[in-house]
Amino acid sequence: MSGILAFDLGASSGRAILGRLTDRRIEIEELHRFPNDPVQVGHRLHWDILRLYHEIKQGLLKAKLKGMEPISLGIDSWAVDFGFIGSDGGLLGNPYHYRDRHTDGMMDRLLAQIPASEVFARTGIQFLPFNSIFQLYALKQADSPLLRQAEHLLMIPDLLRYFLTGDMFHEFSNATTTQLYNSTNGTWDDELLRRVDVPASWFGEVLNPGSAAGVVRDSVRAELGIGAVDVFAVAEHDTASAVAAVPAVTRTFAYLSCGTWSLLGTEVERPVLTELAQQLNFTNEGGVGGTYRLLKNIMGLWLLQEWRREWERAGQSYSFAELIMLAERAEPFALFLDPDDPLFLFPGEMSSRIQQYCRQTGQKPPDDTGGIVRCILENLALKYRYVLELTEKLSGHVFGGLHMVGGGIHNTLLCQWTANAIGKPVWAGPSEASAIGNLAVQWIAKGEFRDIWEARRVIRDSFPVTEYEPAMTTDWNDAYSRFLEKMRMGSFNFGKR
Q1: Residue range 263-298, pLDDT digits in tens
Q2: What is the pLDDT of residues 383-404, one digit of tens each?
Q3: Of the N and C termini of the chain, which has fewer Cβ atoms inside 10 Å?
C-alpha cells in the first residue's frame, strides 16, 4: 500500500497524516500524533526540536509497521522561528520559542532605526514583536555567541527537512514571514539584512511550494528500515497549507484558519502594500501558486488553551464539552476585551491577566468559569467581524460568507457565534486543513492535480463542510457596536503600529 505523508506541526501538537487518492477522492489516515510542548530552561523558552525530529521518524516507522510505503512527504509548521547551523553542519542550540521574552522592546528599538513604512514597503509583513527580524535583532543586541558560530539559518520546517535529507533550502511561504524577504523583488532583502547586521550568506535558495527538496538520506533509511522517500517543499507555513485546503467555490473568498492562532484574510495575486494596509497592520504572506495571503493575525484559542492549562495545573480539569456548556449558560456580552492585547501574548496565568485587563478598562471581571470561557469566545467572534470588515476594505471585495478551517471548527459554539457576529454564513471544514493542503501541494507537484483549484474541488468533494447560518443578529450587532466603542476609547491597542 502506498500513499504520501504530511507532517503537520502546530504550536501545541503535531501529526503524521497519510493521504491517498482514490477515484478522485482524498482519503486521510492519522498514523501518529504527538504533543509539542515548549521547554523552559532558566529564563528562556525553547522548542524541543530534536524531539520533533524523533517524532517525524516515528511517523515514518509507523507507516512502515502498517505496511505503508509513502512515496513522498512534506513538512509544515508555524512561522517565524528558526535554528542555526554551524560550520560542521550541526545544529547550534535549541531554537527559541516565539513567546520567549528576549524580544521585549526590540521591535520599538529597531523601528527607531529603520522606519516602519520602509520595512512594510519592502516586505509587506505586519509588525509583531516575535517576527524573525526582531528575534535576530534581539540576539544581535545580546551579542549571542550563536551568531558568531552560525553559517546558515533555517526556519523550523527547513531545519527538520535538512535533518531528514542533508539538503538546505528555504521555502517561499515561510520565508515571507521572516520580515526579511522582499515581496516585490522575490528575494531576500539585502538592505534589511545589512541594517540588522546579519550575513546574507545565511539565507540561501528559496523554493516555491511543490518543489523537490531532496530524498530521505541513507542513514535514516538504514535506521528505520525504509526505502527511498522523496521530500517536497510544500507550503511550509501551516497557514499557507491550510488556505490551500479551503474548499472555496469562487476565486474570491475569505478564510479563517482557526487554532492556537486565528488567521483571517483572503487570497490575492499581488501583495497589498498601501499605506492603509500598513496602518491596519495587515500582512502579505506567501501562498501556493505565487499567490499571497492578505491577512491579520488574531490571538485565537491560545487564551482558552492557556487558561485551561492553568486550571489543570491547579488540579481542576474541564472537558471542552463541559466548558461549552458552562459558556452557554453564562451571561452574554458581560465583558469586552481585545484578544490581541499584549497582556495575553506570553504564557502564564491567563485568568489573572483577564482580571487585570478588566481593571485597566473599567469593567467587571467574570466571576466564574463559564463567564471567562464565554467572554473569550464572544470576543474572538467579534474580533473576527472587525478583521473581516477590514479585509473587505483593503481587498475591495465583499464576501458572501467565511470559510473556517482547522481544529478550532470542532468548537461548534465559536463557529455559530462567528456566523452571528459577521451576519453571514460560516462554512466550517475541513478540520485537518493544514495536513490536507500539505498533501495537495505534493499531488500538484506529482501531476495528480492540474493546479490548486482542481485540488480544492477534490477537497470539497472529499470532506464534509458544516454551514452555520447567522442568528440573533440584532443582539450581536448591538454587542459589536459596544466592542467598537471600546476600541475607539483606546483600550485595544495591539498591532496599531
Answers
A1: 999 999 999 999 999 999 999 999 999 999 999 999
A2: 999 999 999 999 999 999 999 9
A3: N
Strands 402-405 and 211-215: unpaired
Would you call 197 a catalytic residue per the annotation? no
Neighbouring-strand partners of residue 75:
7
CA distance 156 to 170: 10
Closest among 326, 412, 402 to 371, alpha carbons compared:
326
In the set 76, 230, 238, 341, the catalytic residue is 238
Nearest to 306 by CA among 262, 352, 374, 263: 352
Average pLDDT over residues 463-480: 98
Cα within 13 Å of Cα(26), Cβ side: 33
> Which CATH number is correct for 248-429+465-497, 2.60.120.10, 1.10.10.10, 3.90.180.10, 3.30.420.40?
3.30.420.40
Closest CA to 36 of 75, 8, 61: 8
Closest CA to 380 of 443, 337, 346, 319: 337
Under a CB-based contact definition with an 8 Å cutoff, are residues 57 and 75 in contact? no
The letter for the amino acid at 485 is: E
DSSP β-bridge partners for residue 405: 257
33, three cell numbers: 500524533
Determine whether 275 is exposed, middle or buried from the number of CB atoms within 10 Å of its CB (0-12, 13-18, 19+). Answer: exposed
pLDDT interval class at 493 (50, 70, 90): very low
The CATH architecture that domain 2-237 belongs to is 2-Layer Sandwich (3.30)
